[in-house]
Specification:
Blueprint: E1 3-4, H1 6-18, H2 23-38, E2 48-52, H3 56-70, E3 75-78, H4 87-98, E4 114-118, H5 130-141, E5 145-149, E6 172-176, E7 179-180, E8 194-198, E9 208-210, H6 213-219, E10 234-238, H7 245-256, E11 262-267, H8 269-278, E12 283-286, H9 288-293, E13 301-306, H10 314-326, E14 330-332, E15 349-351, H11 355-362, H12 366-371, H13 373-384, E16 387-390, E17 396-398, E18 404-406, H14 419-433, H15 437-458, H16 469-481
Parallel strand pairs: 1-7, 2-3, 2-4, 4-5, 5-6, 6-8, 9-18, 10-11, 10-13, 11-12, 13-14, 14-15, 15-16
Antiparallel strand pairs: 16-17, 17-18
Helix pairs in contact: 2-3, 2-4, 3-4, 7-8, 7-14, 14-15, 15-16
The structure holds ligand LZDS7PUF and potassium ion.
Cofactor: K(+); Mg(2+)
Protein name: Bifunctional NAD(P)H-hydrate repair enzyme
Pfam families: Carb_kinase (PF01256), YjeF_N (PF03853)
Length: about 475
């Protein structure tokens, strides 16, 4: 599924117009499709109000109102900001009247069961003007089902800012042609409710898309009957200090359960004995950090990771450089994510910051990052020729050429110390087993979130801990591989 910017929608509309479509017909299709999408959510005797603005978002509301009224729904179409001012919306209002349909006066004292927001769409500039704010806050105070058309009024298509938190708080949003970036940004994303896209019959395609289960299945490596431990490569993870052994254990769990043939943990003596009791399959490079700084990389390593459970230091920086120089695909996490002018490497480098770490890398505030995380991750990836996995709700994966994905899986069960360590292990392991590093990164992130979704089918998200991945990964991977 593709994700769009406002200018892409305008371009797509423009192309359609050049091919003989009219805006009138696009709005007609939009209104009719919205009607079909909304039918399962509303009942004939619900008191429904459509709040129509003066632009084409309001025009969609006029068409939707016609379809609902023709089908016998109890609908009031109102224009609390004044009558339409775009040509297409005016034409649709004329046609609406020709069908003997009526509009109502805006009366905030009236009570409704369903409020449909067609006030502003992708033509919004923020902040909202006072007259819109009043209607939005009235809507949010009502005990009604709230449905937004295209985007909730008060958010923009491309950015996550919501000045003063004043936006229509939708239970459902139906986005025309495709979902917009702000659905996945913060705080805007919290206003959309359940979001679905509504096709208006135009061609799909964008440089930003959502990872699909089908794509993960299609790119997941087959395990042939003739395969042996060498087939799936040896992974190396530099992790853990005596006072943070747990992170190294969790990275080892993530790696060993995700397919790698062999796993070498570069760590301290003490951490090695802790890992060995939970992941007996692991082998060790003792005094790992120092030995890698000295250029000692064990043989046959096909994928590496550095960072879980270690703090930023000169030797971590040095070890990261040695690994980057080796040409082995490298995941750089936690303590190894340090600000540097270049990430020049001979192989792919994958950075896995959470917003706090990305803030330290870029010097931007966490708020700024959350409101624009897609473009910021993409910009960093392109500028530094690295892959950025910006973690959080809707993890963003940006590749060095600008190709960018949003991960749809996961829930608050992942918002726990240690789940990032597991992810690092998983990415390393999948790098070892996949031919294409991009597929490895996308698949690891998707499966990591899927584990949390599987957990929440039976248990509370509150109770999930990172060590649960030990038993969740087999279930998640079975769902991916089952149809192979
Ligand atoms: N292919 C498609 O997806 C189609 C989508 N359609 C719908 O069209 C809208 C976009 O329509 P547009 O007319 O460009 O814009 P809007 O309806 O969002 O808004 C324009 C009006 O909003 C006023 N405005 C903007 N910002 C503010 C603000 N902060 N406070 C108050 N009012 C604001 C603006 O007024 P100005 O006086 O500032 O110009 C406009 O009146 C899209 O979202 C879809 O719903 C089409 O139906 C067809 C194809
Ligand atoms: K809207």
């Amino acid at each position: 599924m593709y994700i769009y910017r406002a200018d892409e929608i305008h371009q797509i509309d423009q192309q359609a117009l050049e091919q003989g479509f009219s805006l009138f017909s696009l709005m007609e299709i939009a209104g009719r499709e919205l009607f079909h999408k909304m039918k399962p959510l509303i009942k004939k005797d619900d008191r429904i109000i459509i709040l129509s603005g003066r632009g084409n978002n309001g025009g969609d509301g006029i068409v939707l109102s016609r379809y609902l009224r023709m089908a016998g729904y109890n609908v009031s179409l109102v224009f609390p900001l004044g009558r339409p001012k775009t040509e297409t919306a005016k034409q649709h209002l004329d046609y609406y009247f020709m069908q003997d349909e009526k509009v109502d006066e805006w009366n905030p004292n009236q009570v409704y069961d369903v409020i449909i927001d067609c006030l502003l769409g992708i033509g919004t500039t923020l902040p909202l003007r006072e007259n819109v704010k009043q209607v939005v806050s009235w809507s949010n105070e009502q005990d009604a089902l709230r449905i937004a058309v295209d985007i909730p009024t008060g958010v923009q298509a491309d950015h996550g800012h919501v000045p003063d938190g004043e936006a229509f708080l939708a239970d459902y949003s139906f986005s025309l042609h495709g979902v917009k970036r702000s659905t996945f940004l913060l705080p805007s994303g919290t206003y959309f409710g359940k979001t679905e896209s509504v096709s208006v019959g135009l061609k799909q395609g964008s440089d930003l898309s959502i990872i699909s289960k089908e794509s993960v299945r299609a790119t997941f490596p087959n395990r042939e009957v003739t395969s042996h431990k060498g087939t799936f490569g040896t992974s190396l993870i530099v992790a853990g200090t005596d006072h943070m052994p747990g992170s190294a254990v969790l990275a080892a769990i993530g790696a060993i359960r995700s397919g790698t043939g062999k796993l070498v943990m570069a760590t301290t003596d003490r951490v090695a004995s802790v890992i060995a009791s939970t992941v007996p399959e692991a082998t060790f490079l003792l005094n790992g950090l120092e030995r890698i700084c000295q250029g000692h990389i064990p043989e046959k390593i096909v994928a590496a990771g550095i960072g879980p459970g270690i703090e930023a230091s000169e030797s971590v920086k040095k070890a990261t450089e040695v690994l980057m120089e080796s040409g082995i695909p490298l995941v750089v996490d936690a303590g190894a994510i340090q600000k540097r002018n270049n990430w020049k490497a001979k192989g792919p480098v994958i950075l896995t910051p959470h917003p706090g770490e990305f803030s330290r890398l870029t010097g931007l505030s966490i708020e700024e990052i959350q409101a624009n995380r897609i473009e910021l991750a993409r910009h960093y990836a392109m500028h530094h020729h690295v892959t950025v996995v910006l973690k959080g709700k809707y993890t963003v994966i940006a590749f060095p050429d600008g190709e960018t994905y949003i991960n749809p899986t996961g829930n608050s069960g992942l918002a726990k110390g240690g789940s990032g360590d597991v992810l690092t292990g998983m990415i390393v392991s999948m790098l070892a087993t996949h031919d294409n590093y991009r597929d490895a990164v996308k698949n690891a992130v998707y499966v990591h979130g899927l584990c949390a979704n599987i957990w929440s089918e039976k248990y509370s998200e509150t109770s999930m801990v990172a060590s649960d991945f030990h038993r969740l990964l087999p279930l998640a991977l079975q769902r991916i591989e089952r149809n192979k």
